[in-house]
Amino acid sequence: MIKSPDWDRLSPVKNLSRKLSGAGRIEGIAESLTMLRDGEQVNGISLEKIVALVILAGEVMLKNGAETSRVEQTMAHMARACGAAKVESFVIPTGVFVTVTDSAGNSLTTMRRVYNRTINLDRIAKVNELSRRLADQRLDYEAALSLLEYIAKERSGFSLGPSVVASGVVGVGFAVLQNAGPGEAGFAFLAAALVRYIAHIVSRLHGVRFTFEFLGAMVAALTGVTVNWLWPQISRDIVIVGGIIPLVPGVAVTNAISDVIAGDLLSGLSRGLEAALTSIAVAMGVVIVLAISI
Length: 294
What we know:
This protein has 294 residues and is mainly alpha-helical. Helices cover 63% and strands 7% of the residues. A three-stranded antiparallel sheet has the order 1-2-3.
């Protein structure tokens, strides 16, 4: 059971998520951490405690879309900041492995299985800043663990309403790039918003990502076909393109390329395969609807 942080000691951290919204994300967490004891040395920490801290940090970052090299580097920096003499970590998209060795040669190895992954750059930024503070010895072990547990459990990101609107705006943007008129841009907004709503509902009922990608693409295609049937002057293709844009795995592709360049071939290939399967699911959803409607 995760222990609740000492809010009397970590008072500004209670409002961490609100402070980290928008452009002031990093500055917000920096301000929130300044009340912690600066310059305190972190000595005498057991291997079990060090491993518990770094494995949780690795799990949080991997779950929220960090690339493999960033996860491994963050875990290594945090372990050394706590007094570890040597750190060996191995990260793949579905698991985190770490071995920590102290100055006496004693070592401890553990792993953490990661089942569900999403994209949440806010949490990654928070863990990164926490790691820097710990490495600079402006944060002691207990405060770091409490903060990390809070970051792992806090409700982060936007609610359904703003997410639906944001998806619609993204759809409009790409429709405009296709020389869309006002009507096509409006229906692209509708298609993208519907796709985001359907993806949210299906993801809560069914955890497999490819399912809601496939169904979301079908919804976008159905919207485009229906609109074109009712108003022939509206371009079906522009509406469909705007609708499926929120489903495009852009971050997954970027992370896959980053991992391959960094030499993490296993992680890079697996992330690339995941992105390819997502693209195939989206394409299949659109193709099936178009084939039926012809």
